[in-house]
Structures are given as structure tokens and as C-alpha cells.
Amino acid sequence: MPDAIAYISRDTDGVLWKKALEAALGPLDFRTLDALGDKADIEVALAWKPPRGLIASLPNVKMIVSLGMGVDHLLADDRLPDGVPITRIMDDGLVGQMSEYAIYWALRHHRDIDKYAASQRAKQWKPEDFVDTIHRRIGILGLGTIGQDTANKFAALGFPTAGWSRTQKSLPGLETFHGPDGFRRLLAESDILVNVLPLTRETRGILNAEAFAALPKGAYLINMARGGHVVDEALLAALDSGHLSGATLDVFNIEPLPPEHRYWTHPRVQVTPHIAGATNPRTASPGVIENIRRLKAGQPLIHTVDPKSGY
Ligand code: GLV
What we know:
The chain is of the alpha/beta class. The chain has two domains: 4-91 and 280-297, NAD(P)-binding Rossmann-like Domain (Rossmann fold, 3-Layer(aba) Sandwich); 94-271, NAD(P)-binding Rossmann-like Domain (Rossmann fold). The chain has nine helices and twelve strands. It has helices at 15-25, 72-75, 92-110, 113-121, 145-156, 179-188, 209-214, 232-240, 281-297, and strands at residues 4-8, 30-32, 42-47, 63-66, 86-88, 138-141, 161-165, 175-178, 192-195, 219-223, 244-249, 269-271. The strands form two sheets. The chain has a seven-stranded parallel β-sheet, sandwiched between helices. A five-stranded parallel β-sheet has the order 2-1-3-4-5, covered by helices on one side. Helix 1 (15-25) links the parallel strand 1 (4-8) and strand 2 (30-32). Helix 1 (15-25) crosses helix 9 and helix 3 packs across helix 5 (145-156). It is elongated. 38% of the residues are buried. It binds glyoxylic acid (GLV). The site of glyoxylic acid has 6 residues, from loops.
């Protein structure tokens, strides 16, 4: 019976995952990318940015687990085996980090912290104009687990908060929009736009010139989803013209962001290296453990991904 677990990622060595899974399931045949051994032994593939075709080369794989909440890194492999269920981590730790990240950068913009840092360097005592929290409208693109947590925390701080999703959702305390028309309406009332959409065929390039033009003048963008949502030239043009007052970008069309890219030095751009939400085996493993148990017991899996919708 194949029962090995393959850890297919170059981001970390997998030691924390092995520990977390073994703490619940007992000793495991846990193999890393460089020591997969006989591929016929592998039953479960834990994957982050797997090399193309590698998962298809595991003849007995029964479950693929995305080590990110986003699954675009996995679905980019056009040779994934048909009929093998794909699940993804659901990580409360990661969700909390993402909402923290959005709130940190939003508050920093909202309270003019960068302007005060510049004033301090110039030894200037210079109060900035004050914007009332109830007049700083937050728009969240994507109302899945991360979007809802982020939206609820902004709302709890007193910001008028709205969200947009592909299909209609109604959520207590939040104004919600959906569909193409709703997208434009959300943008028109977002002073701070936070992107947490999944990257799919439909959302690639969704933050384009038209979208930026639909935002109110002076709007601020926080992108912690995927770089592929953004048309970089359009964003740079909107920042250069001053239509957007700034952007915090954690994710990029090319990662690592190439040294010559204008984002690095743009005075209105804050760059971070895809750290808004890091997968944490401690908080992400319970769902994976549950799915390994279910797989062995022949029960329906949880946190499954629909490759057609892309999330
Ligand atoms: C990180 O980017 C993730 O998808 O979890």
C-alpha cells in the first residue's frame, strides 16, 4: 500500500510539516523533493509551486494538498493528474497575518505615518489634515475566508467597509457587491482598496487602467493576493499621475521582484517580499491531518478545490 507523503516545495525544508503531521498521526514515511525515492510509494503530495509534471509522475497519488491558501501555483501545472482530488490548507494563522498586514498598512496611510516620519527627519512639528474614520471607506476584493476576516476587522475599527465577490454574498455588517457592475460600484467607493482575490482566468489583470480610473482620486491600494491581478504599467501610471496616492504591494507578476523594477524605488510604493501571510504548519496542519484520516477511511475530503473555478 503506498502511504508515503511527499513534501514538494523549495520554500522550506518541510521539517515543521513533518513534525506537525507526526505529532498527530505517528511516524510517517515523509519524503522531500530531493529524496522522493520510489515514486510509486507516494500517496499524498503536499505542494507549493510544484515543478511542472512532477505530481503526474506519482502513479499512486490519491490526494494533492496545496500548501498555500491560493492554489494558482498548483493549477499552473497543466499536467496535474485527472481525477485526483485537490485540497488546500485552511490556516487561521495565515488568515490572521493577512488581516493584520492589511490593517497595518491601511492605518499607516490613514494616520499619515509616513508624512510624520518625514516631518521628524526635518524636525518639523506639522499636524496633517485629519480624516475621520467614518469617512475613510475600505473596499475588499474577495470575500472568502481571508476577505471576510479582513473586512470584519476593518468594520470593528469603525471604517465603512464593503466587499466584492464573484458570486453574491450577504454578510452581516458589510455592504456587499458582486459581478462586473458591482465591481465598478465597489471601486467608486473605496478610499483604500484591499485585494485578496484568488488568481483565476477571470481575475488575472482585473486591476487595470479602467479599474484604477474608477477609484476615487487619492485612493490607496493594498495588494496581498497575487501580482497577476495587477497590470503593472497601469498601476504605475495611476501612481505617477497622483490619481492613486500610494500602494503597498506584497505580491508581484515576477517574484522575486527584479532589481530594475520601478516599484522598488517609486516614492508612492511600499514593497514587501510576499510575506503578508506565511503558511504556518502549526495552524495549517489540523485540516491536512483531518484529510489524511478521511482519505484512509474513504470519507469525503474537506477544503477541496474546484480546478474549473480556480479556487
Ligand atoms: C500564499 O501566498 C498562499 O497562497 O497561501
